[in-house]
Design a protein that fits this description.
Helix 8 links the parallel strand 12 and strand 13. This protein has 17 helices and 17 strands. It is of the alpha/beta class. The N terminus is likely disordered. Strands 1, 2, 3, 4, 5, 15, 16 and 17 form an 8-stranded mixed beta sheet that branches. Strands 10-9-11-12-13-14 form a 6-stranded parallel beta sheet, covered by helices on one side. A 3-stranded parallel beta sheet has the order 6-7-8. It is 33% helix and 17% strand. It has 2 domains: 103 residues, Roll (Urease, subunit C, domain 1), CATH 2.30.40.10; 367 residues, Metal-dependent hydrolases (TIM Barrel).
Length: 496
C-alpha cells in the first residue's frame, strides 16, 4: 500500500512535466561543439536535431539551417554532451538526518520522517540535476522503491535519465535504515547472495551492488573483531593481513558476481581498501564505485583493471563531507549554495542542533576538528595520487559523487568533484571525458550507446556553456541552457 501511495504522490507532482519530445528539426548554430570522448572541437558548429536525437554535426555551411527549422543561436557558446554522475543515491537527501547509522539524530528527526521528505522532494531533486547540466545519473543502490523512482524519472521531462541498482548486498548490517524496505541487506552465505541476485533480477536492475566492508583487525589480546554486525564465525583474528581480512567476504562476492553474470547483470562494488578492490576485480566486478584510500595502488592492480576492463568511479567529494559537516567545517561551493536544495543545506549546520541531543561523534569533532581534517587530508593524499596513476595508465575513469550522503549535495556536488579531479592532476578535457564518454559506459541497454557523445543517433542531451571548460574546468558550471531529449531549457528557468 505504501508503494502505491508513494508512486501516486510523485506521479501527481510530476504531471505538469510529462515526458516531452519536440517535433520537427532543431538546429543549433554558431557555437563551438566539444566532444570530450573523441577530443574533437568543432568551431562554428551546426548541430541538427530531429525529435529527441542528433542527426548531424558539422562545421557551419550555407546549406543549413533550412527554412522551417527551429534555430538556436549559440554564438560565443560551447556545446557539450550532457554531464553524467555515475554514483548517486536517491534514498538519501544529502542532509544531516539521512544516515542514522552514521550518526543517530532520530530524536531530532525520526528517520521515517526523513524518508517521507526524500520521496516527496524527488521532483525537486530531479530538477536540480538538470540545472547542473547532468542529464543522466546512475543510482548505485537503495531500497526496492528505487525501481519505482527509476520508472518515474525515465518518464519525466524535467529529470535525468536514471539507471538504478536495488538494495546493497553487504558484509555488514545497517538495521537503523530498515523501515521494511532496507537499502542495505547483510548476506552471510554464498547461497544467500545468489538468492538475493535472483530476487533483484526480477526488477531488471541496471546493476547488482556489493558493499564490501572489510572488518578491522583487532589488536593483540582483544579477541575477535568488534565491528558491528559481523558474525563471529566471519570475524578477523589479531594479526591477520589485509588479504586475509578481505578474504572473509570474498566467497560471497564470488557467488554474487557469478550469479549476476549468469543472468546478464553487471556488478558494482564499493571497496575502498586495496585488497578488497583487487579481490572484486579478480572476481569480475564491472564497476568499482570508489577510489582506493588505504594505500597507493600497485602495478599489479593497475594491470588487473586494464586486463579486466574494469571501470572505476573515484567518488572523491564524499570523503570530506561527513567529517567536515560534523566538525562544523563544511565549505560548500557557490554552485551548491545556489542550486542545492536549501531545506537540505539548512540541516547541515550542526550548531543548530539542540545542545542536549548532539551525539558524541559530533561534539568531539566540533571541539577538536584537527584530527578530522588531518584524516581527510591523508585520505586525499592517497586517493588523488591513485586517480592520477589510474588515469595515466588508461583505466576508464567515470565521474561520480555519492550524492545523497551527508553533506554531498544532489546535483551541484559534481562541481566539487571536478575541483578534486583537477587537484589530482587531470586536465579539463580528461575530466570532461570522465563525465561524458567514459561515464556513458556505466549505462547498459539502449541508453549507454546513445549518451555521452556528440554524434548522429545519440540522444539530444546537451549542455550549453557561456565559457570554455577546456580552458578551465571551473567554466563547466557556467551553464546557459540544458537540452534533454531534444527539449531546450534555459538554465535559470529550471528551478522556478
Amino acid at each position: 500500500m505504501k508503494r502505491f501511495s508513494f508512486l501516486a504522490l510523485v506521479a501527481a507532482a510530476l504531471a505538469s512535466s510529462a515526458l516531452a519530445t519536440p517535433s520537427g528539426t532543431t538546429v543549433i548554430v554558431n557555437g563551438t561543439a566539444i566532444d570530450p570522448g573523441s577530443g574533437k572541437v568543432i568551431p562554428n558548429a551546426v548541430i541538427s536535431i530531429e525529435g529527441d536525437h542528433i542527426t548531424a554535426i558539422k562545421e557551419g555551411g550555407a546549406e543549413i539551417p533550412k527554412k522551417g527549422d527551429q534555430v538556436i543561436d549559440a554564438r560565443g557558446k560551447f556545446i557539450l554532451p550532457g554531464y553524467i554522475d555515475t554514483h548517486v543515491h536517491f534514498f538519501q537527501s544529502g542532509g544531516l538526518f539521512t544516515r542514522p547509522d552514521a550518526v543517530d539524530l532520530t530524536s531530532v528527526r525520526p528517520y521515517r520522517d526523513e524518508v517521507a521528505m526524500i520521496k516527496k522532494n524527488l521532483p525537486d531533486t530531479f530538477k536540480r540535476y538538470l540545472r547542473c547540466g547532468i542529464t543522466s545519473v546512475l543510482d548505485i543502490g537503495g531500497p526496492m522503491w528505487n525501481f519505482e523512482m527509476r520508472k518515474i524519472a525515465n518518464s519525466t521531462a524535467l529529470a535525468p535519465r536514471v539507471a538504478a541498482a536495488g538494495p546493497l548486498i553487504s558484509s555488514v548490517s545497517r538495521p537503523q535504515l530498515d523501515l521494511g524496505d532496507p537499502p542495505i541487506v547483510k548476506i552471510d552465505t554464498p547461497e544467500q547472495g545468489r538468492e538475493m541476485v535472483r530476487k533483484l533480477a526480477a526488477q531488471k536492475p541496471d546493476y547488482i551492488k556489493i558493499w564490501y566492508i572489510v572488518p578491522v583487525a583487532p589488536k593483540p589480546g582483544e579477541g575477535g573483531s568488534s565491528t558491528a554486525s559481523i558474525s563471529p564465525s566471519a570475524s578477523p583474528a589479531p594479526g591477520q593481513s589485509d588479504v586475509e581480512r578481505a578474504a572473509i567476504f570474498r566467497p560471497i562476492v564470488h557467488a554474487v558476481v557469478e550469479e549476476s553474470h549468469k543472468l546478464k547483470l553487471r556488478v558494482a562494488v564499493h571497496a575502498t581498501e586495496l585488497e578488497a578492490a583487487r579481490a572484486s576485480a579478480e572476481e569480475g566486478a564491472d564497476l568499482l564505485v570508489h577510489s582506493v584510500t588505504d594505500k597507493l595502488v600497485d602495478e599489479a592492480f593497475v594491470k588487473l583493471l586494464k586486463e579486466k576492463g574494469t571501470i572505476l568511479t573515484p567518488t572523491l567529494v564524499v570523503f570530506e563531507r561527513y567529517g567536515r559537516t560534523f566538525a562544523h567545517k563544511l565549505e560548500l561551493t557557490p554552485e551548491e549554495k545556489a542550486w542545492g536544495n536549501p531545506e537540505v543545506i539548512s540541516t547541515l549546520d550542526v550548531t543548530k542542533l539542540p545542545p542536549d541531543k548532539i551525539p558524541e561523534r559530533i561534539s568531539k569533532a566540533i571541539a577538536n576538528p584537527v584530527p578530522v581534517l588531518d584524516n581527510i587530508k591523508k585520505t586525499y593524499d592517497i586517493a588523488l595520487k591513485n586517480l592520477k596513476t589510474l588515469e595515466d595508465a588508461g583505466i576508464t575513469i567515470a565521474t561520480g559523487t555519492d550524492a545523497g550522503n551527508i553533506g554531498t549535495i544532489h546535483g551541484p556536488a559534481i562541481f566539487r568533484e571536478f575541483q578534486l579531479m583537477r587537484e589530482a592532476g587531470l586536465t579539463p578535457m580528461q575530466i570532461l571525458k570522465c563525465t561524458t564518454a567514459n561515464a556513458a559506459k556505466t549505462f547498459g541497454g539502449e541508453t549507454g550507446p546513445k549518451i555521452g557523445a556528440l554524434k548522429p543517433g545519440n540522444f539530444a542531451d546537451l549542455v550549453i556553456l557561456k565559457s570554455n571548460p577546456v580552458d578551465d574546468i571551473a567554466h563547466a558550471s557556467d551553464i546557459e541552457s540544458v537540452m534533454k531529449n531534444g527539449v531546450l531549457y534555459p538554465a535559470d528557468s529550471i528551478l522556478k
